[in-house]
Each structure stands twice: as C-alpha cells, then as structure tokens.
C-alpha cells in the first residue's frame, strides 16, 4: 500500500497527464485515465481505487476501517429504505418508477436519455418519480434525497458501473461538456477538478490527502465528518467549487449532471461501494 507523503507544491507531474483533448472517444479517455493512475500508483489494485485516499495511506485506512463496524450513515439508510417503500398519496411508490423496482440499479446511473436528450442522474430520477406521482420534489444536496439515494446504492454494492455514451451527437456533447468542466480551471485559485484529482492525486494539501479521479462516484452519497451527515455528489461538487473560490452551480443543473456523467464513465468497471464515509 502506497503511503503518500508529498506536500502539494505544484500542478505538474512526471507522468503524461490526461488532457481534455477534442476528438478522443470516451473509451480512449477512460483507458488513458486508468493507465495514468496504474502507473502513478503501481501498488494500488484497480478495484482499490474506490476507497479513494484510504487506498493510498495506511494510517488513514486504519482509522477509516475502525468506523465500519458502526458506520455513521446506517440510520439514514434505514430512513431511506422506509421512505422508498412508503406509498405516495396515489398508492404508487418509488419502485414503480425504476427498473427492477429500484433495487440494484445504482450502477446504471447516470445515463443519457436519448429521447429527452439529457443526462439522468439517480437523484434527478428520484425527484421526477415524485413529481410524476403528484409529490413535491426534495432538496437535492442532503436530507431525504440523500437517504433514499443511499439506500438504493446500498442495494447495488459490488455491482460494477457500466455507463454508456450512445453514439449520437447529443450524448457525445454531454460527455464532452462534462470532460471540459473537469479539466477547466476556475475560481480565484485557478484550479480545475483535475488539478487536485489527476495531477496531484495522492499529494497532501494542508491536512487533506487528495483522492484520485477513479472511483470517486462509487462512494456517494457519503457521510462526511465535515458535514456530520449524508450528502450527494452534487453537494461535493459545489463544495469543491467553493474551495477554489468559484461560484457553485445549481445541484442537478445541466453542468453538474454532465460532469457526473463524465466522472462516472471514467469509473466504469469499478463497483458501487456507497454509501461511504469521508473526512
């Protein structure tokens, strides 16, 4: 197990860093990213990347593993199960909106809806299910929607992501938009997502060990010590934007959904392990 000790001092790396190059296919991008991280962290098995920083540092992994006997999110997941199984006012439930009754489907999200020409995330699908059944939508970043999403993720643990990008202009454009967002610098600090999670993955920035791109969506929703509760991936996106002093975008807006699409495609072949805990 590699123990990262390097302090973040620059935004470069000795390896050839994947770039947001126009014209490459999604699968070429994914293979390039996987190969980059295999070379950067040769002691980390591919499937271990779902554990983020805990795959890189023995001390942090030991502390994290000590929490797993009594994970802080278990009551929220139980609440999510109860809400998922409770009928709407019209007598239907969430199960009526999802393939296989919503059980074991987390690995299929997000997907590109070829009729609506947009990316559909799990949280967006949950709220559209509510609205289609006459219920009010839930707030997207935390609370009930995080609990329901966490319960659904828990039924998919171990199932590998297999996100598809259909060979059509709108789907490829959504993927490309997400990719460009990931590699574009923003905010007063002029950082991109890739600045931390590609170029400097495994390095320390103050007390934070930066996790690799691979496997990040596998964990969500996550219970962060900083939050003291479960939160969705889009809550984390907004937090990262805040950290680099950029304006956060609306949760489940087109930009963040396309970003999730790209990021999750990069993790194809890795299993769902959420919900999970993070600092």
TrEMBL record:
Heme c 2 binds at residues 193, 196-197, 240. It holds the Pfam family SoxA-TsdA_cyt-c. Its cofactor is heme. Coiled coil: none annotated. Residues 1-22 form the signal peptide. It is found in: Periplasm. It comes from the Bacteria. GO terms for biological process: sulfur oxidation. Heme c 1 binds at residues 97, 129. Heterodimer of SoxA and SoxX. This is SoxAX cytochrome complex subunit A. It comes from Marinobacter antarcticus.
């Amino acid at each position: 197990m590699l123990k990262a000790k390097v302090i973040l001092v620059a935004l470069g790396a000795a390896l050839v860093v994947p770039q947001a190059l126009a014209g490459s296919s999604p699968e070429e991008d994914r293979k390039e990213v996987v190969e980059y991280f295999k070379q950067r962290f040769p002691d980390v098995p591919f499937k271990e990347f779902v554990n983020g920083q805990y795959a890189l540092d023995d001390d942090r992994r030991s502390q994290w593993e000590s929490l797993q006997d009594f994970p802080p999110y278990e009551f929220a997941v139980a609440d999510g199960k109860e809400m998922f199984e409770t009928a709407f006012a019209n007598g239907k439930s969430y199960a009526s909106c999802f393939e296989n009754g919503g059980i074991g489907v987390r690995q299929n999200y997000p997907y590109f809806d070829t009729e609506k020409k947009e990316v559909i995330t799990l949280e967006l699908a949950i709220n559209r299910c509510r609205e289609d059944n006459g219920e009010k939508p839930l707030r997207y970043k935390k609370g009930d929607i995080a609990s329901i999403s966490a319960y659904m993720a828990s039924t998919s643990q171990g199932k590998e992501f297999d996100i598809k990008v259909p060979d059509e202009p709108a789907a490829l454009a959504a993927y490309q938009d997400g990719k460009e967002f990931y590699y574009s610098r923003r905010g007063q600090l002029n950082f991109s997502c890739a600045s931390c999670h590609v170029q400097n993955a495994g390095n320390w920035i103050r007390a934070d060990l930066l996790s690799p791109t691979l496997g990040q969506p596998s964990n969500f929703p996550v219970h962060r010590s900083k939050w003291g509760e479960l939160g969705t991936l889009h809550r984390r996106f907004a937090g990262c934007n805040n950290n680099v002093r950029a304006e956060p975008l609306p949760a489940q807006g087109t930009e963040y959904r396309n970003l999730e699409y790209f990021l999750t495609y990069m993790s194809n072949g890795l299993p769902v392990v959420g919900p999970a805990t993070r600092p």
